[in-house]
Amino acid sequence: MWDEPGVALVFPTSSLFSLSSRGTTGSLSSRSMADLVAQALCPVVHCFATQDVVTALERNHLGSLSHLLSPFVALDNVQLRLPSTLHQRTAPRFHLHLVDRTLTPSSSPSPSPSPSSITHRDELFVDHLGHLVAHHALVSDSDLNHPPPYSLVRDAVLSRRDDPVLVPFESFSHPLAALVALSTSHPDPLNALAHLWDLVSPANLYSTDPHSARDFASPDILRFVVLVHDQGAGGGPAAWADAQRLHDTVQKTYGVHSALLPLFSAAPNAVDRLPRAEEAPALWAHLDDARERPESYAEGEEQAGEVRVVGLGFDADADADADDSGPAAVPSAPSTSTRPTFPPQRGLELSPSDLTSLRTFAREFVLQSLVPFLERRGVLLHEQWQASRRGIGG
């Protein structure tokens, strides 16, 4: 697989966990190095959702569109074609990396960060790595069996894939597709979709960087529309018929890369309320362990330490002297009363049919839209690579 030029930019090559960890020690270190390498190569999909969709998700303690889809985007036995020979191979496990993007009003677009701000962001990240190493050194002095800080630094570096700021040299973090979700009960769905469609165009999606889109490896992306039909908002059969007509209009206007997703049929306000899916909260439980529970849950309060942002040259003795000479330059450690509580049960308004709809949507999105798009991109990259190898004689 690795001897195919351009393939590494398109397809993952190994089994991996679909979401990166956000600062937990054991989440990434419990997997093999092959999985970690594959995680750095899996396709990135940026997710956009309007406020009405976010409100419906918050009713079910789901933070975002990526949080909703995360348990369903890992597929087994996906057929892929090699760009050079077009021979099929079966990927035993195909994963996506979902990154949420916030929407900005059309009247006040978010300004592009300057090169100095990007440099400052990188400097803060290096300081964060210095804090991890320094805190680990303090803990290892009292515990000789404490492992080296390699896993902490590695997890922090890999978690940067969640950063929506795009830079040309980090090609593996560039999105290959964008999911645009809005509710069928939106007061003006077509105009809202037109704004979102323009927002996720290559020219705007990559505008978070001061460079133009042509500076990126491949600014062409797949844009997919998700119409979320919130059955908890009421409406009954008439609202469902309107949603189907809206879906037909969207397909005629924006193409076949769209889906109508009925959800929350177990909500109290649903007209034809269905029983709640008992297995729904468990689908997000392991994700909460990896994404939201801080390290102090696993290591205890005595190892949580003081929250500091320091450089790689952190010196505990010098810092103590500085604290005696004047006020501290960094915020003090937060009190235990402000520690986040354990995540609540999620997806309480989802019925078994809703879970089936989510699984069907994830599989159709990957097999019918994303994989064919990536295969076409892979063939194009391979042809361009072959053309660059030709000599003067052709």
Quick rundown:
With 394 residues, the chain is an alpha/beta fold.
Comma- or semicolon-separated keywords:
globular, ER-golgi trafficking TRAPP I complex 85 kDa subunit-domain-containing protein, disordered N terminus, 394 residues, TRAPP_III_complex_Trs85, five-stranded parallel beta sheet, two-stranded antiparallel ribbon, 13 helices
Describe the structure.
The protein is an alpha/beta fold and 394 residues long. It has one domain (7-113, 165-293, 342-389). It is 41% helix and 12% strand. It is built from 13 helices and seven strands. It has helices at residues 25-29, 33-39, 51-59, 65-69, 115-142, 150-158, 189-199, 202-205, 236-254, 280-291, 295-299, 316-325, 352-389, and strands at residues 44-49, 75-81, 88-94, 97-100, 177-183, 222-230, 258-263. It has a five-stranded parallel sheet, with helices on both faces. Strands 2-3 form a two-stranded antiparallel sheet. Strand 2 (75-81) and strand 3 (88-94) form a beta hairpin. The radius of gyration is 23 Å and the shape is globular. The two termini are 27 Å apart. InterPro entries: TRAPP_III_complex_Trs85. Residues 318-350 are annotated as: Disordered. It comes from Rhodotorula diobovata.
